[in-house]
Specification:
- The protein is 65% helix and 3% strand.
- The chain is mostly helical.
- The protein has two domains: 97 residues, no CATH class; 151 residues, no CATH class.
- A two-stranded antiparallel sheet has the order 1-4. A two-stranded antiparallel sheet has the order 2-3.
- A hairpin with a 2-residue loop joins strand 2 and strand 3.
- The protein is elongated, with a radius of gyration of 23 Å.
- The termini are far apart.
Length: 274
């Protein structure tokens, strides 16, 4: 949908960073061009944003004002011919269809959870709950992880799970030469890598209130980025996340945010006790 919306209004993302959000879709569906947004009845435009975003009136008012301002700014450059409008509506239809299918998938997952809960020893629901305790992992991501890894008992060490995710290093070797610049092997599940990548990005970002989603991993990423390329630093975050996933599933305990120092003290205490 990016191509259609940007041809009509390139700066639309200045208003809605996620142009596939419900609010953005609702606005584009009713007002597909800058001219339509400028001419729109303000109360109706406010209602469109409010009903699709469920945000407070102050947020909605500011979005409405910014939207009209950006529309006026971009109107002279807008390619708002009928063909582009038709293309945009086609993109919107596809996005809404995908959204409905996603809702059906989530409903099916919930049915599986409900059926698991009535068992004497529920396992699926517990694993989903444990994974969702990790920042950046929601129900769909958790379900994907469980579906892809199957029986977790097959992974006796975290390195085995890392390899299954396909983020272990691949070593280039020829005769007596062994390469030193290694990349991910990508020999595991591509679906797992995709959801892990998304979860890793979520862990190095801030929430709308400015707080870090995961201050420990964000700090780890920033330190890595000082000496490594950003994609290498992000790969390191992905690696950390797999170890966290392994730990919560192995121990059967929800994720608890700990600094590296706190984690070291905890490991030392375990060693002493053993």
């Amino acid at each position: 949908m990016t191509q259609g919306s940007t041809q009509l209004m390139l700066n639309f993302k200045d208003v809605f960073s996620d142009i596939c959000s419900k609010a953005a879709i609702a606005v584009l569906e009713e007002y597909p061009t800058p001219a339509a947004m400028i001419k729109a009845n303000r109360n109706r435009l406010v209602d469109t944003i409010k009903n699709s975003s469920r945000k407070d009136p102050d947020w909605v008012g500011k979005k409405c004002q910014l939207l009209v301002s950006k529309a006026k700014e971009f109107k002279p450059l807008s390619l708002d011919d009928p063909a582009n409008v038709v293309m945009l509506r086609a993109y919107i239809s596809m996005v809404k269809s995908i959204g409905k299918n996603l809702d059906r998938i989530l409903e099916a997952i919930q049915e599986f959870i409900d059926s698991d809960l009535v068992k004497d020893t529920p396992t699926l629901s517990q694993a989903l709950e444990l994974l969702q305790s990790i920042p950046g992992i929601g129900l769909l991501t958790a379900a994907t992880i469980i579906a892809e890894i199957g029986d977790f008992r097959a992974f006796t060490k975290p390195k085995k799970l890392v390899a299954y995710f396909g983020i272990d290093p691949s070593v280039k070797q020829s005769g007596e030469f062994t390469g030193t610049h290694n990349k991910m092997s990508k020999r595991g599940s591509k679906f797992l890598r995709r959801v892990l990548y998304t979860a890793a990005l979520a862990n190095i970002r801030t929430k709308r209130n400015g707080e870090a989603t995961n201050p420990v991993l964000m700090d780890y990423y920033k330190k890595k980025s000082q000496s490594k390329a950003k994609k290498v630093a992000l790969r390191a975050v992905m690696h950390k996340l797999v170890y966290i996933i392994f730990a919560v599933l192995r121990d059967g305990k929800p994720f608890a945010l700990r600094s590296p120092e706190e984690h070291a003290i905890m490991l030392a205490a375990r060693s002493t006790a053993a």
